[in-house]
Amino acid sequence: MSNVVTEEHVQYCFNVLIAHLKKEPFPNPTFRNDEYPLFVTWHKQYADGQHHLRGCIGNFAPLHLHEGLRKYALISALKDRRFSPIQLEEVPSLTCAVSLLTNFEVADNYLDWQVGKHGIWIEFKQQNGQTETATYLPEVIKEQQWTKEEAIESLLRKGDFKGKITTEYCLNSITLTRYQSQKLEMPYKGTI
What we know:
CATH architecture of the largest domain: 2-Layer Sandwich
CATH class of the largest domain: Alpha Beta
Strand content: 25-35%
Mean pLDDT: 93
CATH topology of the largest domain: Glycoprotein, Type 4 Pilin
Order of helices and strands: HEEHEEEHHHE
CATH superfamily of the largest domain: Hypothetical protein ph0010, domain 1
Number of helices: 5
Oligomer: single chain
Number of domains: 2
Shape: elongated
């Protein structure tokens, strides 16, 4: 895959967040306005080298990069329900990652994918018959050092499945779509 994610994409997300927090106009992007499904991820870096997730939200529908990066830079920084909204004084200690998603394929079964290469998006039925979805980007499974089965179980729980997880359930209930991602993560390069 050619280099589709650039430093400019990542710095644009920082600049959008800073403009929003300072109540200033958004910057005008100068990069190409191609369409991709995308995710924006924020991590906070600590002096001891540790980094912790501060927000990660995206969309599987292809979006024009100008609008999509602006929208998800803010949603992931301010509206990820798992975290408090990012504050302006945190920005110098943050990294931002842009993930552009490609090569979507419906898998033959729930184990038809490769750890470290594919992200996975599952659609499954709750015990009440309601359809749910959940996803992990490719790097998540590798970072957690999960097997395929552990990743599927974790993803079902992430999607709020409360029933018993069995091989038969997985074979009969899960539709898995695999995809690839190009990701670039960088710290902020500037002053607030």
